[in-house]
Amino acid sequence: MRGALTRVRTRQHVRTLNDRFRAFAGHAANVLGSPWAFFCALVFVAVWAASGPYFAYSNAWQLVINTSTTIATFLMVFLLQSTQNRDTKAINIKLDELLRAIEGARTGLADLGDLTDEEIDKIERELVSIARKSGLDAVRLGDELRAEHSSLRRKRRSGQK
After folding, report:
1. CA dist 2 → 5, 18, 31, 93, 122 (Å)
2. How many Cα atoms are found within 13 Å in the side-chain-facing hemisphere of 95?
3. How far is the C-alpha of 43 from the C-alpha of 24, rounded, in Å?
4. Taking a C-beta distance cutoff of 8 angstroms, is the pair 95, 110 a contact?
5. How far is CA 59 from CA 55, 65, 66, 71, in A?
6. What would the mean pLDDT of 41-51 be, rounded to a whole number?
7. Cα separation, 144 vs 106, whole angstroms
8. Residue 145 in contact with residue 125, Cβ under 8 Å?
9. Are 81 and 89 in contact (CB under 8 A)?
10. How far is CA 7 from CA 17, 22, 47, 130, in A?
11. Contact 113, 92 (CB under 8 A)
């Protein structure tokens, strides 16, 4: 019974540049997002800081950390954006499929990413209104939920619990 659960795969043996980059970006994101990568970065910074007196805190010593962190950040932006775009696309496809599978669901919501912020806000207000009319008044929705989050943020900033 493989039917619906089988993955769609091509039999193409030639890996394109996109395929190679996607595989590399996914692997790099997994490795660089690990506790070991954080530990290695922490050790690098500690060694750099400890070597300051040896190099008399020279401009070259400062340039090492500035250049290395700038290059690492620059490259990571592209890797992370690639993996995030792929994950977002996969999640949207799954949600689209769920919308199509549910009878009575508004399948027009599948392309919300193409709408303006104002159009999305209008749909949100409409759905909150529908939920309230359906007897879900006890559930805090929309503006009420945002107000609660803002209140919690203010309390955290002021040190209250």
Report:
1. 6, 28, 32, 20, 41
2. 13
3. 25
4. yes
5. 9, 10, 10, 18
6. 95
7. 24
8. no
9. no
10. 22, 18, 46, 37
11. yes
List CB contacts of 76: < 8 A, sequence separation 6 or more.
32
Cα(140)–Cα(128) distance, rounded to whole angstroms?
Answer: 9
Specify the pTM: 0.55
In the chain, domain spans: 13-105, 115-161
Q: How many CB atoms lie within 10 A of CB 25?
A: 19
Confidence of residue 92 (pLDDT cuts 50, 70, 90): confident
Provide the 3-class DSSP secondary structure of residue 69: helix
Sequence-separated (6 or more) residues with CB below 8 Å from residue 88 = none
CA 55 – CA 57 distance, rounded (Å):
5
Lowest mean pLDDT, pick from 8-12, 60-64, 74-78, 126-130: 8-12
Q: Which amino acid is at 76?
A: M
Reading phi first (left if > 0) and then psi (alpha if -120 to 50, else beta), residue 139 is in beta
Distance CA 109, CA 122 (A): 12
Report whether 91 contacts 80 (CB < 8 A).
no
